[in-house]
Amino acid sequence: MQISPPKHLASYIKHYIFLENSENDIMRLRLFTDGNTGLILSGNINLQDLSGNSLPLSFFYGQLTQYKDLVTNGSFSLMAVVFQPYFLNILLKISAKEVQNQIVSVEDVLKNEMQVFQEKLFYNVDPELIINDLNIYFTTFLSKIINSDYELIKATQQYILQNKGIVTSKELEHFTGYSERQVERKFQQYIGLSPKKYSNIARLHYFLSLMKTNTEESITKLSYHAGYADQSHLIKEFNNNIGLTPNQYSKTENKLAVNFIELHSK
């Protein structure tokens, strides 16, 4: 289940995703970058990394520069709040670069503020009611004054997305009125990635959207439409960000979200 936020929150929250698994089996999952950060809320998930380290029940995740493999054991329900790239910086009040590739326990930074949502997930409250309550929570939080830099970052992010990730540093300088170095510093502070890295992710996800809607087209033709110079460049981006080839990704049966997939055990 994927639900969009109300209009006044859309600049900060991309969407909510509710996922549940009723089977008492082991699932191997892979999360890879989509250029956004987010919040995972759960009341009962047993989630571990491949080293066997248990993750918190609820956590924030920063920008990913490499895919992350996770393992669940048993049934679970969770709510993913997918943020716009700069919203984690607003919530945590720290540089987004500091939490790049990091998982931050919700309890460590917000104490018990999210406990009520965890309990509702544990007791199987209607997900839409939980999302309504989350909308109220975030609306109250955002009633505070927001740094004016966020408007610039938001506009620049949208400019990159509208151009499907195909923008030059000179074009960004012209759009923002800032030097390349200044734009990069602001992106690292508020989004946690360089403009170039974020643009590459935007182009990769545009290609993924083409794959979804043009199933009869060849990978070569779709890579050209997405602005890749050649197929080898695309495959390199896939391997770096997803750890799979385009064909392997397309054959993945259980896509919990576009960037959250179940892997079959080898």
From TrEMBL:
Transmembrane segments: none annotated. SUPFAM superfamilies: Homeodomain-like. The lineage of its organism: Bacteria, Pseudomonadati, Bacteroidota, Flavobacteriia, Flavobacteriales. This is AraC-type DNA-binding protein. Keywords: DNA-binding, Transcription, Transcription regulation. It holds the Pfam family DUF6597. GO terms for molecular function: DNA-binding transcription factor activity; sequence-specific DNA binding. SMART domains: HTH_ARAC. The keyword RNA-binding does not apply. Residues 150-252 form the HTH araC/xylS-type domain.
